[in-house]
Amino acid sequence: RYDKPTPVQKHAIPIIISGRDLMACAQTGSGKTAAFLLPILNQMYELGIPPPPQSTRGYNRRKQYPLGLVLAPTRELATQIFEEAKKFAYRSRMRPAVLYGGNNTSDQMRELDRGCNLIVATPGRLEDMITRGKVCLDNIRFLVLDEADRMLDMGFKESVATIMNH
């Protein structure tokens, strides 16, 4: 149901497709999520899925090496982005996963074991999954900090810095 791109989509999609960094601000309901998910998933389709890093191949087959990461400050926003990602990746070889606190960790680990190319996560839970050895960020090509200002206001500065160092 995308007849005409919104202003944020019209400007963001070409920038992301060209491989440049982008910082965008727009009102709620303006199509920001589609503005970053569509070109990222498109690039993932075109570039394909690289193999895990050579040094870890065969070591831990259940560790995931996603191509894209979307960090969000709340479980509600992470879930909303994940639902959109599932729609855009439907019937494709790209598989999104969501990680957030406040629910069963083992369910999320089982979902990760099925594979993922795009992770939508809150900082705390992603940091936990990295520590547990379930996720490695060595193959990340696309990074989105959705509502980055809010993440910093909520006290996620150290978690975000730790994730960026990975």
List its salient traits.
single chain, alpha/beta, 7 helices
Distance between the termini: 37 Å
Order of helices and strands: HHEHEHEHEHH
Beta strand %: 5-15%
Q: What Rg, in angstroms, do the CA atoms define?
A: 15 Å
What number is the mean pLDDT? 90
Count every helix, treating DSSP H or I runs of 4 or more residues as helices: 7
Poorly predicted sequence stretches spanning 5 or more consecutive residues: none
Q: How is the main sheet built?
A: 4 strands, parallel
Strand order of the largest sheet: 2-3-1-4
Task: Write structural notes for this entry.
With 166 residues, the chain is an alpha/beta fold. The chain is 45% helix and 10% strand. The protein has a 4-stranded parallel beta sheet with strand order 2-3-1-4. The chain is globular, with a radius of gyration of 15 Å.
